[in-house]
Sequence to fold (636 residues):
Amino acid sequence: MTAPSRFAPFAFASCLVAFGASRAAAQDTSQVNEGVRVGVEYQPGVRPGLVVLPGAGLDSARAIVRRDLDYTDRFEMIMLADAPTGSAGRGGSESGGVNYGIYKALGAQYGVELTEVGGGGMTVRLHDLTAGRLRNQQTFTLPSPTAPEYRVELHRVADEVTRWASGTAGIAATRLLFVSGGRIYRVDSDGETIMPLTPAGQTALSPAWSPDGERFAFTQLGAGRGAVLVQTIASGATAAVPGTATGLNITPAFAPDGRLLAYAHSDESGTDIYLADVVNRCCAQRLTVGRYADNLSPSFSPDGNRIAFVSTRAGPPQVYVMGKDGTDQELLAPFDYGATGSSNAPEWSPDGANVVFHREVAGSPQLFLVNVSGRRVRQLTSSGRNEDPTWGADSRHITFVSDRSGRRQLWVIDVETGRVRQLQTPGAARLPAWSRRLSRTAVAP
Amino acid sequence: MRAPSILLVLAIAGLAAACGGKPAPEQPAPEPTPAPAPAPTPAPVDDSAERERLENERRAREAAERAAAVKADLAAMINFEYDQATVRSVDQATLDRKAAIMGANPNVRIQISGHADERGSDEYNLALGNRRAAAAKRYLESKGIDASRMEVVSYGEERPLAQGSDEAAYAQNRRDEFAVTAGGDSLVAPQ
Fold:
């Protein structure tokens, strides 16, 4: 960003447009073609106004859904300081009683109406205020507001409303894992319901979700060594991954099939990436031969055929890519030898188009994207330390660790608008991992 | 504690000399006649046994000090440049000393643990620490120490020696530690 500061917003926007274009090209030429967006294409910089309509009851539900819709960064949220309620806001029969004119005047294109129905249900209507018609309507069954899965069900509602309005489902019904004080914690995507998953008094690192969200893998560090364990969230039961009983085993990553798990094994000959079958519990296979160099931090492409990883084969750590059998190893994120800083912690986007990683710039890690088909590298952050990125299921939000508030905390960036928000945690947080959209079995208490 | 004990030794020796020297062995020490003084005044003693005991103590102490010095040499840390796992030339003498000690004490086994400063990726630092420990092991192997006597582990940045986020702290934290895991009870100094 070399433009004078008063032009910075424009430069940033044009850079985002360029990014969107390169992404479209990636879908045309990349080998990875899963997860291509369908439906309405989001227009960068053009966010439709959206208002959550006031109504009787459901105050907390309305607040949760409104916040979820805000966090999608797909809408310009219209806040109602002096909400028109009651008869003042009611209109004709076509609108189901909603006075479109009032909200349209506030700049809203969409109005979301939540109505309580008998038996713990909620009817949700999406009004297209510009077109002057009801666009979508669905009644959802909700658990009791005191039930543990109540909030997740509301997140699902918000994700569905996002799909109605933008063509792509939201990612509110997701969770993150992170490490704080040697324990792995789980938190909802909106920062609520933080709970520890591993015991106190241990050093757990590098949590990684299984694709179904029902298990996670992590390193249990002890006395300078560590096994990779897979823990089932519902039961708390753990099992060691084959091949990780000796030495130091770090940076696990599930393949999209949930059966294979890649990890890095360290011993005196260096650190290398292995692949094991965690369902049949067998067959650890070595993918890299570092010979005193390090190969670590594997991350699968969404089709499961390729693995991005970090290697020190050329000196400082940089981001490479290989086939899932260890063949065709090559550099993924270009760098200038002797000039470009160390690069670490790659993670492949769910749509396959980009790999996010952090790279040292003037002594501080910053987030970067590398476009998989074009190998173009783009810097996402520039102030403070920003590291250990993890993709949201929509391939546009990234949670990462930043010290911009003074201590290491989790932050979420939307790579299309550049908007950043903090995900509050009680203590210092690191090594986040973001789930895919969670099924109902994955969130069952 | 060392200075007072030396003073005590001198005081006892002085008293023994003042008593005029060499009473018969096995003779119980006579009580001082005037009064049973509660003060901890050392009684005049038959000092040959005592002298022998003190000499033995001195020898044991010196042997312990030598062993401690050997142990300290064996445990001496080495440090690394940022994001490097190459043994620095200034640390080669430290490792040469360890190799000599391990050569003179064939039962000694050690664990080498590699550490990193807090910069860099948390996970990468574990691999970097492993590489640093392995580098020291390879160096010692090149000096003739059998690989089976050395194990490598890594703590990455999880166990900083110095707190703080400045180069002084970082420099201390980029290190290999050496712990004796077997045969460390009766170390002899290399010739």
Remarks:
- The beta strands of chain B are 78-79, 109-115, 150-156, 175-182.
